[in-house]
Task: structure prediction
Amino acid sequence: MKSELTIIIPFLNEGSEIENTIQSILETAVTNLRILLINDNSNDNFNYNEMIRKYGNKVSYVLHKERKGVAASRNEGVSLSETPYFLLLDGHMRFYETGWDERLIDLLKKHPGTILCSQTQALKKDRSGHVTVEPLNHFGAYIDLKSLKTVWNKHDEPDHSNLMEIPCILGAAYAVEKSYWLHLHGLNGLLSYGMDEQLLSMKVWLEGGRCLLVNDWVTGHIYRESFPYMNPTQDIIYNKLYLAQLFLPYSIKKQVFEQFKTANRDVFERSYAMLKERYPEIKEEKKYLEKIFKHSINSFIQRNNRFARLNKQKKVATTK
Result:
């Protein structure tokens, strides 16, 4: 059977959770999918090579000698994949539905020009390894345009089918056609960690595609209280400035810049200096994206703000 789907899992210091994720995939998948692990220079002394040998040619493995970051690792994974479709995952996920992969491939074929996002079952893992399951109470996400953070969408469209249009993907299980990712230039321009979901979602909507939540496809995601590694703050702020520079109208971009400048002037200045150094390549990327975009940024803002208003109303209603 020819492979049509590659599971791409960039990771860092995941330990045994990587194998838990692999086993969960293989126990529930029915197609001849491929799994590609990208170890972004883990330093936790876990023997990933020994663990991966158990799976033979079912699992491919890339080890970075230097850390590249999540965005670069995801882009690398897509470039290395040899199937028409791929699924991006974090290294601490669970699958529950037998044959989810076959259904996902079918949905990707029926809905070109989309990024499909799973419904996320939040899992909490204590120090003893016991995992507790939290209720399903969100439906994708939207973007707080003041801070550029993702916010869980608590509003469920009353008349939607199993596919629900959402402003922004969230939850760490995202399926895309490889040719569409390359057309969008994927996560080009991001540093280290952060803003992947915001960048991809805005690109998709502006290009004329759709971000769709597959509401009846549930993946479990272990959410940790803190990262097992340090993230450079200036890179995170840089990514936000980069997104604002690419997409946002001047009035909103100015507010975003001023907010980060006020919050931490030193970090902002370093991040802004990095942005200025990269202006020529950012200008070229912006020129390319403007050629392929079919919608204005205002159309995305209107869509996004509608979800923000609905969530605010829901929050007010539940507190009365």
Remarks:
- The radius of gyration is 19 Å.
